[in-house]
Structures are given as structure tokens and as C-alpha cells.
Design brief:
With 71 residues, this protein is mainly alpha-helical. The chain has helices at 2-8, 24-28, 44-50, 61-66; strands at residues 34-36, 56-58. It has a two-stranded parallel ribbon. Helix 3 links the parallel strand 1 (34-36) and strand 2. The longest helix is centred in the N-terminal third of the chain and has 7 residues, at 2-8.
Length: 71
């Protein structure tokens, strides 16, 4: 849904990707912003310490559950 929303608002400059929890560290080297789903909350502190230069956003359970890409 995020890709669809970005396309609908003509933001082709933003690339969205997803990965499994065991791949997060690999992708952090290539990202400008990290958005974690509620089930990955346990990774938050470690990622903030390892990659302090990357902004990290937690997706709330409500937004994630509703699949609300606009939120």
C-alpha cells in the first residue's frame, strides 16, 4: 500500500522496501529512514545504537493493522 500511495501522490523519488527481521542490519547500510512494524519493537534499541545516523520510526499497531499508508 505504501508504494501505491506514493505513486498516487507522484512521489517517484522515494523508494520503499521491506525485509525480514534477519535482514534489517544488511539493509540499514542502504537506507535513509527505517520504519519498524510493531512486531519488530524488540530491534528498536539495538538499531538505534548501531545506526544512530538513520532516523527510526515505529509504525503504531493501529496504523499497521489498518494498513494506512497515508498515516
Amino acid at each position: 500500500r505504501m508504494r501505491e500511495h506514493l505513486k498516487s501522490i507522484e512521489r517517484t523519488d522515494i523508494k520503499v522496501g521491506s525485509c525480514a527481521s534477519n535482514q534489517v542490519h544488511q539493509y540499514c547500510k542502504e537506507t535513509d529512514l527505517l520504519m519498524l512494524t510493531p512486531q519488530l519493537l524488540y530491534l528498536k534499541e539495538n538499531l538505534m545504537k548501531e545506526f544512530p545516523m538513520i532516523p527510526l520510526i515505529m509504525i503504531s499497531p493501529q496504523v499497521y493493522g489498518n494498513q494506512d499508508a497515508e498515516a
